[in-house]
Specification:
alpha/beta; 9-stranded mixed sheet; 6-stranded mixed sheet; 13 helices; elongated
């Protein structure tokens, strides 16, 4: 077991820099974690690095290359345990030992079963001092939330995103007009940028002819996979999503969908999946499992009330991120966050609630969904 210790002021600054460096890789590292590394010798930073999938090399190796011989006797500050397995690159723990690094201060143990303490063990066996900066564990967890969730559960972290009025409506009758401001929508694009996949329902596609793309123009490690729940394959061939397909669109149908529609979509480069759920609908749990098997670490749901309700009622949602506008839509025809028919739905309880002020009276609420057993959900 690695020793836990509270860092001094200087060490805290180095760890914060490592976390900041790791944050620069968000959206560019999946299926790897976001990692930042700072090498310090004699009170001077001699090497820095952060990982991106396209750059291949891990943060530790980049920092070692920058430091050169100055790495010998240095301390490494890093947000995640150095790896101990052979992947696209060699084990970083071995590289640190070979470079003569004297001490490693990490915020978090890697949950990847190929590492999970083995990196620390190798370092300690070679005489390298290993410390866990436990006061930074929370920050490190949030930074790599999707990676950690996927390694622990073998399924992507599912976040339900919505824009709402203060009375909980997501659209006016007829669906005309935006709920939130352009600034809030730009903020929401950051959620898309950090997601591996995004999902909506056919009702949203037919109503809005949306694209569901990442419009941040920031580099990504993999294309944002767009998914549409469409049991009968009603998505128009001339819709923006199909027309703009670049092998990044999957339509989820059931086995009863017309085969000729499937062939037509596949000719246009669309992947068509069949997951049969209850009542002739698509199976969201099957979609999530399919994503997990392909190392998609995060799924963002941006949909209408029916899909939202189904996702919440099924227990598929791990987090919510709701954008609130200082508006009220009192019309009874306005659409609620979770609407449509279905089985009675228990209250969804939230924890770790955070409020993010935006501008113009807008704010966002981020929270984790409390996972209840079937027995406890009845109480």
């Amino acid at each position: 077991m690695s020793t836990s210790a509270r860092a001094g002021p200087a060490a805290e600054a180095y760890m914060r820099e490592a976390l900041e460096l790791a944050g620069r890789g968000l959206g560019q590292t999946s299926p790897n974690p976001a990692v930042g590394a700072v090498l310090v010798r004699g009170g001077e930073v001699v090497g820095r690095g952060f990982h991106t999938w396209a750059g291949v090399k891990h943060a530790e190796v980049l920092a070692l290359e920058q430091a050169g011989e100055r790495a010998r006797g240095a301390s490494l500050y890093i947000n995640l345990e150095p790896c101990a397995h052979q992947g696209r690159t060699g084990p970083c723990a071995d590289a640190l030992v070979a470079a003569g690094v004297q001490r490693v201060v990490a915020a978090l143990q890697d949950p990847d079963p190929r590492v999970s303490g083995e990196g620390f063990r190798r370092l300690r066996a070679a005489g390298v001092e290993v410390l866990l900066a436990s006061e930074f564990a929370g920050h490190a967890l949030r930074l790599n939330e999707a990676f950690i969730h996927s390694k622990r559960t073998a399924r992507p972290l599912v976040t339900l995103k919505a824009a709402l009025t203060l009375d909980g409506k997501i659209a006016a009758p007829g669906g005309a007009g935006w709920i939130t401001s352009e600034r809030a929508r730009a903020h929401a694009q950051q959620l898309r940028h950090r997601a591996d996949a995004i999902l909506t329902g056919i009702g949203t596609v037919l109503a809005d002819d949306c694209l569901l793309t990442d419009r941040t123009c920031c580099p990504r490690s993999r294309p944002l996979l767009r998914l549409v729940l469409d049991s009968g394959l009603r998505i128009p061939a001339d819709s923006k999503m199909v027309s703009g397909c670049r092998s990044d669109l999957a339509v989820v149908a059931t086995s009863a969908a017309p085969p000729e529609r499937r062939r037509e979509l596949e000719k246009r480069g669309v992947s068509v999946l069949a997951f049969d759920g209850p009542d002739g609908r698509t199976d969201l749990a099957g979609v999530i499992a399919w994503l997990g098997e392909r190392s998609y670490q995060s799924l963002l749901i941006e949909a209408g009330g029916r899909v939202n309700r189904a996702a919440l009622a099924s227990g598929a949602v791990d987090k919510i991120f709701f954008y609130y506008a200082p508006k009220i839509l009192g019309d009874p025809g306005s659409l609620p966050l979770a609407g449509g028919c279905g089985r009675p739905m228990s209250a969804v309880r939230l924890e770790d609630v955070q409020v993010h002020p935006l501008s113009g009276g807008e704010f966002a609420v981020e929270a984790s969904v409390v996972k209840c057993s079937p027995e406890s959900s009845k109480s």
